[in-house]
Design a protein that fits this description.
The protein has helices spanning 60-83, 89-108, 110-127, 132-137; strands spanning 10-13, 21-24, 30-33, 38-41. By secondary structure, it is mainly alpha-helical. It has one domain (10-131). The strands form two sheets. Strands 1-4 form a two-stranded antiparallel sheet. The chain has a two-stranded antiparallel ribbon with strand order 2-3. α1 (60-83) crosses α2 and α2 (89-108) runs antiparallel to α3.
C-alpha cells in the first residue's frame, strides 16, 4: 500500500486552508492535506461530495447516532433496490460501503490501513465463526 494515491481519486475540500503531507489531486497538481482540512475520496464517490458534518463537535453518542442513520439509509435503499429486482441489495450496498470506507482509509491514512484491515479480519473471524456464511464459503 503506497502513500501516493491513485490520481483517479477525487480530492474533497473541507476548507480552503491546507497543511500536512503532500499528495496529488486528480489533475496531477501536488497539494498538501491535513485530515481536518482536506481528504481524498474513492473514485466511486467522485461528484457526490456534500461536505462533512461537524464531527469535531459530536460526542460519542451523537457519532453512534450517525452510524445508525447510515445503516437505516442503507437498509431503506436496499428495500428500494429489492423492489427493482435486485437479488442481494443489502449485501451489495453494505459491501460497497465497506469497500469505500477502506479505500478512504488507504487514501488518507495509508500507515493505518494494514492495522485497520487486520483488525477487521480479526473481528470478522471472531464474530462470524461458525455462522451460516462460513459453511457456504468453505
Amino acid at each position: 500500500m503506497s502513500a501516493a494515491p491513485n490520481p483517479a481519486y477525487a480530492l474533497a475540500n473541507r476548507s480552503k486552508g491546507v497543511s500536512g503531507r503532500g499528495l496529488q489531486d486528480p489533475g496531477g497538481v501536488s497539494r498538501t492535506y491535513d485530515m481536518n482540512d482536506r481528504f481524498l475520496l474513492p473514485v466511486a464517490l467522485r461528484g457526490h461530495e456534500c461536505g462533512p458534518g461537524d464531527a469535531d463537535g459530536q460526542d460519542e453518542t451523537q457519532f453512534l447516532g450517525k452510524q445508525v442513520e447510515l445503516i437505516c439509509l442503507l437498509l431503506r435503499r436496499a428495500h428500494h433496490l429489492r423492489g427493482c429486482g435486485r437479488e442481494t441489495p443489502v449485501a451489495d450496498l453494505i459491501v460497497s460501503c465497506i469497500v469505500n470506507l477502506l479505500e478512504a482509509l488507504e487514501l488518507n491514512s495509508p500507515d493505518e490501513t494494514e492495522i485497520g484491515l487486520a483488525r477487521l479480519q480479526q473481528i470478522i473471524d471472531l464474530a462470524f465463526t461458525g455462522g451460516p456464511w462460513k459453511a457456504a464459503s468453505g
